[in-house]
Amino acid sequence: MAEYDYDVLVIGAGPGGYVAAIRAAQLGLKTACAESRGTLGGTCLNVGCIPSKAMLHGSELFEEANEGLLAKFGVQTGKVGLDLDALLSEKDDAVKGLTGGIEYLFKKNKVDWLKGHASFKDAHSVEVDGKTVSAENIVIATGSSVTPLPNVEVDNERGVIVDSTGALSLAKVPKHMVVIGGGVIGLELGSVWRRLGAKVTVVEFLDQILPGMDGEVRKEANKLFSKQGIEFKLSTKVTGASVRGKTATLTLEPAEGGDSEELKADCVLVAIGRKPNTDGLNLDAIGLETNKRGQIETDHDFSTKIDGVWAVGDVIPGPMLAHKAEDEGIAVAENIAGQIGIVNHDVIPSVVYTMPEIAGVGLTEEAAKEAGHKVKTGKFPMLANSRAKTNRDTDGFVKVVADAESDQVLGVWIVASLAGTMIAQAAQAMEFGALSEDIAYTCHAHPTHSEALKEAAMAVRGKPIHI
Ligand code: FAD
Ligand code: NAI
């Protein structure tokens, strides 16, 4: 039998890869993880989930103080000012603490960190930093990177046309930020800089923001963000950009084609999606092809069609989300160890961390109908929720989508300040195959925002109490 250096070698130490490595080691497998970045944690911890949430939290506190919400509750802050350097350094501290935490977990679980870029030599060996390392199982968890927009060149150093990484570290608050792409990154980082004082214009190719979310949620989000001051140019595409000094000039056209117009900005954020990282892996050496979208296809157990080669996270099909990658990381390690690791891809919550937050799990009403369900829905506005009223954060609603015949919950969509926390309950209920009645008859603590989910479930049968 062949002798390998490791039982498992994971390529990439993002949420998919580092979790796979730790679980494999916990299961008694000799494990290494190759990572080319100087710190562990991948996109999520270094330039994604964590720094963006630090900026969202800080900018939210700034806005609460600045717009008088704190004063309303008796908190006297005096004159409110912004120390952007302090905010950026707090964000960097959060990143440092958490990426260092993964290094500690690797040591604790005896996962070897192979520092450098890994590329395949054959199905059981890779080259990392000039050395060949072999493993019985290799897990590709190389994640994703920013999708470039033709004719719009990102230069994060210069800071005029940036991607999400650049937008997390701008040296000053832009006067006018144009965001290309009304998706998750555009709305989160657009919200950050708007709260800190920028005028923000979002240019979106489609006729509505937040593709993939429930139609009513998309409309409500547009209404709320417009009220907050973000300007939307929908059904519009950017065809080119030039930079002179500190000013970018964008050329815009209707998505369907037509007369062009110019838009000037001192900062442009390109956020039109992300693409899987497979360049430089030398997949040819193992005969592994990617699909049309550049993703690595896997079976339900995360094995690829090459024996001993597995893949998880953003590099495979499915939503590009950290918790999806993490769950796949656990499952792949369990499968490699001979256990049964499963991820239910029908129940993956997604959250946009704006204010209010926007969260969903399962099918949208539109997708449920398209899938052939007869659908009934229940909706409950946060305006009628006592805690939201008390806290003065009444924007949004909860919507439950259920099958009209079986009453099984097919999807839950929430726009609310605490939507990201509330959606966990919906995901768990759906994982257990809940009916809307099950949620409606579950006792919810009062006064909580979560009661709105109970009431929306009651509304599926037309019987909410507080409206
Ligand atoms: P990644 O995190 O991308 O990690 C892959 C790692 O592999 C990288 O560190 C890379 O350096 C390394 N690598 C690649 N190729 C090689 C190679 N050949 N050799 C060695 N190393 C290699 N998701 C959420 O769920 N919630 C959020 O709030 C959220 N916020 C986000 C905010 C932003 C601004 C961005 C950009 C993304 C956000 N995401 C969020 C998405 C989330 O970051 C990704 O879904 C997640 O990081 C994917 O994990 P992964 O392990 O598949 O890949
Ligand atoms: P996205 O896919 O969410 O949104 C991209 C938007 O750009 C879409 O609305 C799309 O229609 C639009 N678009 C595409 N081409 C365009 C063009 N040429 N001109 C104008 N608009 C165009 O992608 P985004 O925001 O870049 O995020 C990437 C990934 O990162 C997402 O898949 C998301 O899952 C993940 N992410 C998750 C977060 C979270 O969970 N809170 C936060 C940030 C990112």
Word description of this protein:
This protein has 467 residues and is of the alpha/beta class. The protein has 3 domains: 6-145 and 275-336, FAD/NAD(P)-binding domain; 161-272, FAD/NAD(P)-binding domain (3-Layer(bba) Sandwich), CATH 3.50.50.60; 350-460, Enolase-like, domain 1 (2-Layer Sandwich), CATH 3.30.390.30. 32% of the residues lie in helices and 25% in strands. The chain contains 14 helices and 22 strands. Strands 1, 2, 3, 4, 5, 6 and 17 form a 7-stranded mixed beta sheet that branches. β13 (247-254) and β14 form a beta hairpin. α1 (15-26) packs parallel to α5. The longest helix is centred in the N-terminal third of the chain and has 26 residues, at 84-109. The chain is globular and about 70 Å long. The mean pLDDT is 97. Bound molecules: flavin-adenine dinucleotide (FAD) and 1,4-dihydronicotinamide adenine dinucleotide (NAI). 1,4-dihydronicotinamide adenine dinucleotide (NAI) binds next to α7, β12 and β18. Residues 149, 180-186, 188, 203-206, 211, 237-238, 271-274, 319-321, 350-353 line the site of 1,4-dihydronicotinamide adenine dinucleotide.
